[in-house]
Amino acid sequence: MAIAVYRGPTYTIELANPTVARLWGRTRDQLLGKGLFEALPEVAGLGYEELLDDVMATGLPHAAHAMEAQHDRNGQRETAYWDFVYVPMHAADGHINGVMVVATEVTEQVLARQQVQQLNQELETRVQERTRQLEVAQQATERQRRQWHELFMRAPAGICIFDGPDWVYEFVNPGYQAMFPGRELLGKRLVDALPEVADQPLMAILHHVYDTGEPFEASEVLVPLARTAHGPVEDIYFDLTYQARCNETGQIDGFVTYAQDVTARVLARREREAQQGEMQRVFEQAPVAIGLFVGEELCITALNPRMAALLGLPADQLLGRPLLEGLPELKGQGFDDLMRQVQTTQVPFVGQELPVTLTRDGEPLVTYYNLVYQPFYSAMGQVEGVFEVAVEVTEQVLARQQVQYLNEELAVINEELTATNEELHESNGQLVRTNADLDNFVYTASHDLKSPISNIEGLLALLPELPPGAVLTDEYVAPVLDRMHESIGRFQRTIAHLTDVSRLQAEFAQPAETVSLAAVIEDVRQDLHFQFLESGAVLEVTVKDTQPRVFSPKNLHSLIYNLLSNALKYRHPERTPLVRISCRPAGDILELRVQDNGLGLSVQQQQRLFQLFQRLHTHVEGSGVGLYAVKKIVENAGGHITVESEPGVGTTFILTFPT
After folding, report:
1. What angle do CA 126, 127, 130 make, to 5 degrees?
2. Could you give the CA distance from residue 648 to residue 652 in angstroms, rounded to a whole number?
3. What cellular component GO annotations does this protein have (predicted)?
């Protein structure tokens, strides 16, 4: 089959298969891209222009049989005859922009028929004029029959002749037999040779041709057949022509079949259509935005749902419109210039995180995209437009910008913290030096003052031996000496207190080890044995052998000693002292309680209880250092101390330590 496609008003040859080129006597390079009548001037004026114009104007196909044409081939101009069909071709928008022709050259058949007609006329004349030449005429007729037979046998299409009302295969050419290899056809009825067709719609078509004489012609007719005698029935597609045959009296006595197996072509086209459908589904369902922009105006020719969503308008409002007409907000942003640059240079453009201002809900909104502009080529290899693939990365960009902003703020904060840390470090160093100076001062002061006080105390001891007895017992002198002795005593106690304070810091850093709280309490009770005897105090201990996991034995002894000695020292004069010590786990802490029934403390006294050198009861001696030391020991161990007290009832110290 000769197949060609013409485009435009000059019928430019867009497609021509090798058969067309061979039958027209040209190479495909001499045909493609030229107007039909430019490439084949010899066919101009033979009526083909009018037929093509009519198909382009009406959109109706046109079929022609044995139409004459002139062709320059084999070095000379030849007359040829064609059976062909002109079919209109439509553009994407539906208008007719070309014609497809499918043709078969029937020059040999026409010439044979003309020759047969001529010979028949000659034969009739000869029969009439010279009956004696009958034998010669019969030989001529036989020769023509053989020519006719040879022509059918050589025809590239499948041809067969059915005879009589039973449709018996009278003639089968090799092309027809090749479609059914190994199946016996000649001399058999159609329904016997191919029984699978008996109940098919094809039978009705054949009856109509045989009964009415009207020919039938169709393309890609489905006929389920078995190609071999015992093979499976399969779908076979044919281009078919059925032509009634008449006897010498004009009565239909059979029909001729012209058949061409086009199954491979149909399946190939369906495969292409399936692939195109699959590509369309891929295009529609692609997880990225895809669009096609064609021509100088970048007409929006195709876009998938994600691209329509990206552009913020329904697809039907964008398709067929120039880019800047459909999306005027893109003017001045440079994207149309980038697309035209890609069309001109044929070099793809890749952009990362490009800002794009689009209209969303009536308001301009800056969004960010990674996108690729790729040249889009026509079937002829020419750049027609730009293919765009885009992915929105607005969230990532804004998140990174937020992170960058936070990092910058964090850097500023870190700089401030660094400066603050340096100041704190310097302040800590200064405090360490100050504390060291204070420790040295306290130690030095307490050490250096001891000698002068001792000397003064010694001089006062000598005074009773030096003056007369009357002087020492004088009512003015004696009180003065007593006050001097008392002042020296207070001075010595103050120096001792200072020594105790200076010793506290060193004692806080004692090494920690596992100790038995019950054992420590017993040691303290022994140390205070005489105080317990003197006061008649009762000690109740409920510790269940629990103790802080990490503690210094010396510090724990000091802590218990201070609390017990205070309970005995500040006992109530009207009742027997009772001291209860208990210790129990409470969640993730260890709670130690020391409770007495002594004098108790007011709220104001409790607020000053742990301050250094604070003495809340003056009727007994004390330094005001003990509870200060207790608080420091507890806090250095990571614990906490609180007090519950009521005047005249008693006091409870609550110490908590991490387990």
Report:
1. 65
2. 13
3. membrane
